[in-house]
Amino acid sequence: MDGVVFDGDDPNELRDAPTSFVIGSGGERRAVDAATCADGSTITCEYTIRCATGERTTASWTGIPVTDLLNIVDAPAETTHFRVESDDGYAICVPVADALDGVIAFERDGEQLRETRPYALRFLAGDIDGERLVKGIHRVDLLSLPADADPDRYETVTLDNPEYE
Ligand SMILES: Nc1nc2c(c(=O)[nH]1)N[C@H]1C(S)=C(S)[C@@H](COP(=O)(O)O)O[C@H]1N2
Ligand SMILES: [Mo]
């Protein structure tokens, strides 16, 4: 991941890069620009998006593996949850184990998202329902929640923003 990770002192310095997002774990924060990822550090996988309405779409997505993100911030073994937040405040929080086969994607079927969609980055994973596959990512957090915490309190999934169609 050399050349991809910027020092977390001022993640806002990357605000202008549409393909950048901030990743946080404990007190640590780093900014990652997905567009600068070398081919060797990205993966391409097929994922099916399953909406609660019954709609399904399958495509080939290219992005940064979630497992690489864990290394970027040196995620502690106690990490329990993976939280993803979009520009518009949409946010999801899932057990980190469910996100491990996932990617932060910047390309769909060989096309840059930022050229074909109103967003540049989105989350995909194999076993996570469609409503949690956040579009327009601006921040990812690795959380260590106590056993009695309610992960739903870390989510805002009520909107279905037509801006992101
Ligand atoms: N930021 C954001 N991400 C979102 C949504 C949204 O409203 N805002 N809708 C979700 C829902 S309900 C579904 S089913 C999928 C749809 O993804 P698609 O448009 O690529 O099929 O995106 C999810 N991600
Ligand atoms: Mo949906």
Automatic annotation (TrEMBL):
Q: Which InterPro entries match?
A: OxRdtase_Mopterin-bd_dom (IPR000572), OxRdtase_Mopterin-bd_sf (IPR036374)
In this protein, which residues make up the domain named Oxidoreductase molybdopterin-binding? 47-144
Superkingdom classification of source: Archaea
Q: Name one Pfam family in it.
A: Oxidored_molyb
- Protein name according to UniProt: Sulfite oxidase-like oxidoreductase
> What organism is listed for this UniProt entry?
Halorubrum tropicale
